[in-house]
Amino acid sequence: MNEQNDKKVLSSTTILKAMNEALIIAVTDDSGKILSVNDQFCKISQYKKEELIGENHSKISSGYHTKEFFEEMWHTLLERKTWSGEICNRAKDGSIFWLKTTIIPSYDQLKNQMHYITIRTDITERKNMPHLKKPYTIDRLTRLGNGRSLDMHFNKTLATDSAETISGIIMLDLSRLKKINDSFGRSIGDLFILNAIKKIKLTLSENDRIFRYNGKKLVITTNEFKVPFLTQQIIAIFNRPFTIEEYHFYSNVHIGVAIFSKNGLTIQQLLKNAELALIEAKKEHGNKALYFKESMTTIFTEQLDIEKRLRIALHTNQLTLYYQPKFETKTHQLIGMEALLRWYDPDYGFIPPDKFLPIAEKNGLMPLIDAWVLKTAAEQMKEWLNQFPHLPLRVAVNISPLHIQEKILFVSLKIFYKKYN
User: Fold this and answer.
1) In what order do the strands lie in the sheet with 113-122?
2) Is the full-model pTM beyond 0.90?
């Protein structure tokens, strides 16, 4: 008899051990404070047990679910019923994982609620299954269609004579995403994207579709007559602050719009023109939406040509420094010079700095230009000092704010100072 009982105990122990290794288990009190977790919980969340005990499950909250989602869950539990559902969570390193979750209320003999037993299984792979089956059509973070999915949707809709539902192409740029990532971390940036998309979706109707075109660009297909309303609604969203966990911040949105037939007949043409409108919108202050105009193509083509010519000019001595003298007001004595950058192009003639410097900054050419200016000004100053050794002459140069932030600038200054004394 004892041997049979031992076998039953052994069998129960084995089962419990197997469950502990296969399932993700936590026990909380009636306020939701974590009392215990198993090793599988620690493994998937990447937190140690001591980091979890005494905390609540908001520690692994992804910010994906609405307040109403959790209110409904607690309503079920407070009725002393078992709750089941799928919950999106965030690990310590910021990665997202999904858990099939069952929460079982547990009571003492007097039916006073004591704690909740939460049993979970990892379903992240299943939730990402559309991504696995269609590896190039689904964005893994947002589970929205990507650029390829947009192509397929547009062409399929066009083939069914429903062009009016895709006649408006709206391209959005979440302009401060990089700053958010740099300031608060990539995980907060990911949650911001999810939160922004969730708010934008509330403005869309049944036939509208939203896609994650690339990292910080979203594309909406809609009826062209709904575009003014949608762009106003989206701008209103970004005029208000975002709250992600303990962080509160604003983020700009810039919007470019292209209209089917009027601005292009293919999705490639429409996207190109929507992006040109978006580029012009980014030149404006604040949140802005612009429709594509043909003149934007001319502007963009000219900017590409200037960029190409500027790269050539850096290596063919087309850039020149003009030196504006600076005098002491009382004595009228020459005390220095200010180096002014000028560029003469054989075809364009003199191109003003306010036209080519923004293009240089946008395309990462300012460090090269600043280095050329520093070198040329240093050589000229040394020549003047050799001719006029007793003249207290100084030359001021203008440096791009973007370049000042880079350590290499100060390295270059030291090199020039030693070389030209």
Assistant:
1) 34-37, 24-29, 113-122, 96-107, 83-90
2) no
Q: What is the pLDDT of residues 17-49, one digit of tens each?
A: 777 778 899 998 877 889 889 999 999 999 999
Residues 140, 130: Cα–Cα separation, whole Å:
9
CA distances from 294 to 178, 273, 299 (A): 30, 9, 9
* CA 313/CA 303 separation, integer angstroms: 15
Would you state the pLDDT for residue 134? 44
Which has the closest alpha carbon to 220: 159, 285, 173?
173
**Residues 361-415: tens digit of each pLDDT:** 888 888 888 888 888 888 888 888 888 877 777 888 887 776 566 666 666 677 7
Helix axes 267-281, 147-159, angle to 10 degrees: 130
